[in-house]
């Protein structure tokens, strides 16, 4: 984890949108470690970011100085395929309303979280930031990706037209505390962890893994992602200004660990961590998604940030937390 000597954030009022989610909760934890005492959070029931009137009122009342925009409608292949309209419309509304209100109320810096699915399906690997909008997107999450691309362009356009200081961080696949383990909407890592845990508990002999297992993916612990986001927001002007003032490069930074593994290797690692002794059966009838997605992290590297949590350590921590949460819900019922 990076340490921050001159924290811009420590004494400031910060709004973390989406604080109960995987990414937002990690950002709140990281800000608390930073010594931030004025962190504002709202659940979706308290503030629906797709409601522009409510968002304007909230920003007018609270006047945050820094905003981490980690609220979004998020899901795996199944959810994206089933609700494509919700994925594009809700995400466009959330980000437009938030950025618009932030601009009108003079927010100093805003960090918009996107996702690596903004890059073309078949772009060269590792993926550099400038590959955005250079080819067709993966069809299974195109509406979501288009909304995220629009968010990045909105940051850039606001910076150029109004002199705002908004940046976008594109994390690779995340995992960590508060992940989504609902099998109808979850991503590959939490879905496999849950399936293997349940198979172990029931004594099942096999677990089905979606797709061929040959596609490659990169995984980053959400605490590493949060560390990168805080690092970016804390950058001194001399390093931050060139990112938000460029006419040629979008204010966009990949956040990853720099290495990837196949879904088969991931499944085997999770099997090992969970202690499931049965077989893995690869269901070739299910979609694989993009063949490979490894982010080029040299821009973050040049800014002085690197991921620090190994996949094995991260998985062990996440499984321990999963067991704690599961035993708590059994104790409560
Ligand atoms: N998970 C990943 O692997 C991953 C990877 C790369 C990038 N990201 C990015 O990180 C961001 C957050 O993802 P996540 O995985 O943390 O998602 P998540 O766990 O599903 O959390 C999403 C959060 O957004 C809030 N939210 C959704 N709709 C809202 C609305 N209309 N108004 C107010 N709040 C709303 C939810 O609030 P409630 O809890 O109150 O419902 C929730 O706290 C997204 O932009 C995503 O693209 C995620």
Characterise the protein shown here.
The protein is α/β, with parallel strands linked by helices. It has a domain at 13-178 and 219-258 and 293-310: 3-Layer(aba) Sandwich (Rossmann fold). It is 44% helix and 15% strand. The protein has helices at 22-34, 52-62, 77-82, 84-104, 142-162, 188-202, 222-233, 237-244, 263-274, 298-303, 311-332, and strands at 13-17, 38-40, 66-69, 109-113, 166-171, 173-175, 206-210, 216-217, 219-221, 252-255, 261-262, 279-283, 292-293. A six-stranded parallel β-sheet has the order 2-1-3-4-5-10, with helices on both faces. The longest helix is centred in the C-terminal third of the chain and has 22 residues, at 311-332. The two termini are 37 Å apart. The mean pLDDT is 94. The structure holds NADP nicotinamide-adenine-dinucleotide phosphate (NAP). NADP nicotinamide-adenine-dinucleotide phosphate is lined by residues 18, 20-24, 43-44, 47-50, 70-74, 94, 113-115, 171, 173-174, 180, 187. NADP nicotinamide-adenine-dinucleotide phosphate (NAP) is lined by residues 18, 20-24, 43-44, 47-50, 70-74, 94, 113-115, 171, 173-174, 180, 187.
List the helices and strands and how they pair.
Layout: E1 13-17, H1 22-34, E2 38-40, H2 52-62, E3 66-69, H3 77-82, H4 84-104, E4 109-113, H5 142-162, E5 166-171, E6 173-175, H6 188-202, E7 206-210, E8 216-217, E9 219-221, H7 222-233, H8 237-244, E10 252-255, E11 261-262, H9 263-274, E12 279-283, E13 292-293, H10 298-303, H11 311-332
Parallel strand pairs: 1-2, 1-3, 3-4, 4-5, 5-10, 6-9, 7-12, 8-13
Antiparallel strand pairs: 8-11
Helix pairs in contact: 1-7, 2-4, 4-5, 6-9, 9-11
């Amino acid at each position: 984890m990076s340490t921050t000597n001159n924290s811009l954030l420590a004494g400031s009022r910060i709004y973390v949108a989406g604080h109960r989610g995987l990414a937002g909760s990690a950002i709140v934890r990281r800000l608390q470690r930073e010594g931030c005492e004025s962190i504002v959070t709202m659940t979706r029931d308290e503030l629906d970011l797709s409601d522009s009137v409510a968002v304007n009122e909230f920003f007018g009342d609270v006047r945050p100085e820094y905003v981490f925009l980690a609220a979004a409608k998020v899901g795996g292949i199944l959810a994206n395929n089933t609700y494509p309209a919700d994925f594009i419309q809700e995400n466009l509304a959330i980000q437009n309303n938030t950025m618009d209100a932030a601009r009108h109320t003079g927010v100093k810096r805003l960090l918009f979280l996107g996702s690596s699915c903004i890059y073309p399906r078949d772009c060269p690997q590792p993926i550099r930031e400038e590959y955005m909008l250079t080819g067709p997107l993966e069809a299974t999450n195109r509406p979501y990706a288009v909304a995220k691309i629009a968010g990045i362009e909105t940051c850039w356009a606001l910076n150029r037209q109004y002199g705002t200081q908004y940046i976008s961080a594109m994390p690779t696949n995340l995992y960590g505390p508060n992940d989504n383990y609902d099998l109808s909407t979850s991503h590959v890592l939490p879905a496999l962890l849950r399936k293997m845990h349940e198979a172990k508990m029931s004594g099942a002999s096999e677990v089905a893994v979606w797709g061929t297992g040959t596609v490659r993916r990169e995984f980053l612990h959400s605490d590493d992602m949060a560390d990168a986001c805080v690092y970016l927001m804390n950058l001194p002007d001399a390093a931050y200004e060139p990112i938000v003032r460029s006419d040629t490069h979008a204010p966009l930074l990949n956040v990853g660990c720099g290495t990837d593994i196949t879904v088969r290797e991931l499944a085997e690692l999770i099997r090992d961590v969970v202690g499931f002794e049965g077989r893995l059966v690869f269901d070739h009838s299910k979609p694989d998604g993009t063949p490979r997605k490894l982010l080029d992290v040299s821009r973050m590297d040049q800014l002085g940030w690197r991921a620090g949590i190994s996949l094995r350590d991260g998985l062990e921590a996440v499984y321990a937390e999963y067991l704690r949460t599961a035993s708590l819900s059994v104790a409560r019922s």
